[in-house]
Amino acid sequence: MTSPRTHIKLAGACLILVAVAWGAAPAAIAAEPISVDVQVSPHTLALHARMDCFTVHAAIPLSTVEVTTLVLNGLRPTAVGADLRGDLVCKFDPAAVKQIVAPPTATFVLSGTTKDGVPFSGADTIRVVP
What we know:
It contains 2 helices and 9 strands. It is α+β, with helices and mostly antiparallel strands. The protein is elongated and about 45 Å long.
């Protein structure tokens, strides 16, 4: 005969197995967010100047990134690729970027998730001139 304590342990184990089977990860297994180095180019944004592109380099391998999750201050990239090291490079519409900044500075935060579902983000502050 089993004790009430044994029944509770078995019921708890069954609930965890059901949660994992349905794709839910137990809270204790949740991954910590990754902080990545980010560099914005140009580092001085002239609002009156014509620009061909606004580029963000992130120190995370492109092969690990779920590109559909990438966002920079609410903007989606117009192009995503890798640099020579295989790290993430994103291009953004310069006109859209100029609409969300004002002098004297702007901080840009690039965020997304890895293909494993781990969130990551990084920030860079640039100078903004009229």
